[in-house]
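I would like you to help me understand the sequence and structure tokens below and explain how sequence relates to structure.
___
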Amino acid sequence: MLNENEHQGSVAKTSQRIREVYRFFADLRERSQQIDIKMMKGCLPHQLLILNDERAVVVPYLYSNATFRSPLFDVGSAADLYTVFASEFEALWNASETASAGKAEPAAGGDD
């Protein structure tokens, strides 16, 4: 869901950036047993979702605007909305496959 007509991005640039970020976290995983990397297949989130025990930070991916112009929701764990985002995180996590340590990176073009 990338609107190449309205933003300065492209599918090729986005695909390259995904591989760069994957390599960054794969390198961290090699040095720490506390990091898991998952590959999403069959599910497509439409938001950036960062979750810890105290907060959920959510930035929706809008088709009409670049991500840096999207609203940011910062929700404390006492809020009902936190439970919604925590449930979404768990559903996405459970629907994803663990990336093996030997796998170098996602395939170009989003096939992985």
Notes: The chain has one domain: 11-100. Residues 11-100 form one domain. The chain is about 35% helix and 15% strand. The chain has a mean pLDDT of 83.
